[in-house]
Design brief:
CATH superfamily of the largest domain: Aldolase class I
Distance between the termini: 17 Å
Shape: globular
Number of strands: 8
Strand order of the largest sheet: 1-2-3-4-5-6-7-8
Number of domains: 2
CATH class of the largest domain: Alpha Beta
CATH topology of the largest domain: TIM Barrel
Radius of gyration: 20 Å
Number of helices: 14
Structural class: alpha/beta
Length: about 325
């Protein structure tokens, strides 16, 4: 099974990618979107959102990261893809799935699914602009208000030259509300020859099995499920009985705190950790207790000490499972 770590704007940035890929099981990541409007972005913008580009397009654990571009103009996207290709990424992804209103009102993200011919033009332009050895992939939803054109959109992306298509099994209008319609992905798979990756509402090993069965996909992209349970990819690919103990979870949290503290100004640091704890409490009782105790703590300078009261920093707690 192939596991891709999904992009999550405002949540799953390079700091959290760095931490989550310490555990084995994740085969590839996709960055948060890089918004393209009317100009060629300087390399520093690509590197800010996807700093892995500065070390061969990989996390420190060696997991490849594909930067993702979001825009609606084929020419401008192609020019930016060409500039991005100079950094030798392991691939370039195109966003046709973002449901955010601020993106959609400018005709980007999932709104592009109303124009299958436009999808082909965008992918084809980017494919022509990028060296052949760099794969171009795409992420789509099933549609905007309904899924009537889902097959047509998948075919349009494939016709444009997409080497792989991730399908979030919901429409833009459905947002992130369960359920995800995994079986609909199977219809798309029958219509295109390129590999499809199933995405949406995969929180557990059981969800993953059900998704694979319904969609027919061997590869899965997981976002919120991996943020809530960092061991999920490991359990899916190596040992479904693996249990992430509190000491190892604490090691991951402290690593993330160190990452955040190194680049985020103090007043925003606590919020980043609390955001992750809010996901982790779905699965880990100690994370629930820590979240409830720390949710009112706003001092970014002392938050690390408060976190250590719940997850003590002790020698040797970085279990071997933390390392690939």
């Amino acid at each position: 099974m192939t596991i891709l770590l999904a992009p999550m704007e405002g949540v799953l940035d390079h700091d959290l990618r760095e931490v989550l890929t310490q555990l084995p099981g994740i085969n590839r990541c996709v960055s948060e979107f890089i918004r393209v409007t009317d100009q060629v972005l300087p390399q520093r913008v690509f590197l800010r959102i996807c700093p892995e580009l500065g070390r061969g397009g990989r996390t420190r654990s060696g997991v490849p990261v594909r930067p993702q571009l979001l825009g609606s103009d084929p020419t401008c996207l192609a020019e930016n893809a060409a500039a991005l290709a100079m950094l030798e990424p392991p691939g370039i992804d195109l966003n046709f799935g973002c449901p955010a209103k601020v993106v959609n009102r400018h005709g980007g993200g999932a709104m592009l699914l109303d124009d299958p011919d436009g999808l082909t033009r965008i992918v084809a332009a980017v494919r022509r602009a990028v060296p052949a050895h760099i794969p171009v992939s795409a992420k789509m939803r099933l549609g905007t208000d309904d899924d009537a054109r889902a097959v047509e959109c998948a075919q349009a992306l494939a016709d444009g030259g997409a080497a792989e298509i991730v399908v979030h099994a919901r429409t833009r209008a459905q947002g992130y509300r369960p359920p995800a319609h995994w079986a609909r992905i199977a219809d798309l798979s029958d219509a295109v020859s390129v590999p499809l990756v199933a995405n949406g509402e995969i929180w557990t090993v059981e969800d993953a099995a059900a998704c694979r069965q319904a969609s027919g996909c061997q590869a899965l992209m997981i976002g919120r499920g991996l943020v809530a349970d960092p061991s999920l990819a490991l359990r899916l690919t190596i040992d479904d009985a693996f249990h992430l103990d509190d000491a190892t979870l604490g090691a991951l949290l402290h690593h993330y705190w160190a990452q955040v503290s190194a680049r985020v100004e103090p007043r925003h640091r606590a919020g980043r950790i609390k955001q992750w704890l809010n996901f982790l409490r779905r699965r880990y009782p100690l994370a629930e207790q820590a979240y409830q105790a720390l949710r009112a703590h706003h001092d970014g300078r002392s938050f690390g000490q408060a976190l250590a009261q719940w997850f003590p920093l002790t020698g040797g707690h970085e279990a071997s499972a933390v390392h690939r």
